[in-house]
Amino acid sequence: MNVRQLRLSLAIFFLLGGVGLVIVRYGLPEVAARFDPLRLALGTGLAFILAGWNFAKWYASLLWYQQQTTPVRPPLQPHRAADNDTGYHPEFDFHTQTPQRSQ
What we know:
The protein is an all-alpha fold and about 100 residues long. It has a domain at about 5-70. The chain has helices at about 5-25, 30, 35-70. Helix 1 (about 5-25) runs antiparallel to helix 3 (about 35-70). The chain is rod-shaped, with a radius of gyration of 31 Å.
C-alpha cells in the first residue's frame, strides 16, 4: 500500500466516522442523550476536517503522479528529430538589404 492509497483510505475512514456521528446525533436521539452534545459536535467537525484534508492531499498527489507520467514532449508537437526543412530561406532573411520596389 503506497501513501496515496493510505490517504484515500484515511479520508474514507474519517468521512464514514463523521457521517456516523451525524447519524447518531440527529437520527438516534436516545443514544445521543448519553453523550455530551459538544463532544459529539467537535468529533463530527474534526472527522469532516480530517476527511477533507486527506481527500485534498490524496487528490494533490494524484495530480502530481499524473503530471510525472505525461510524456516529456507536449502533445501535438512535432518531434525534434523529425525531418523538417530548416535550411536557408531568402524570403525570411531580414538582415540583407533588398532593393526597393517601385510602384
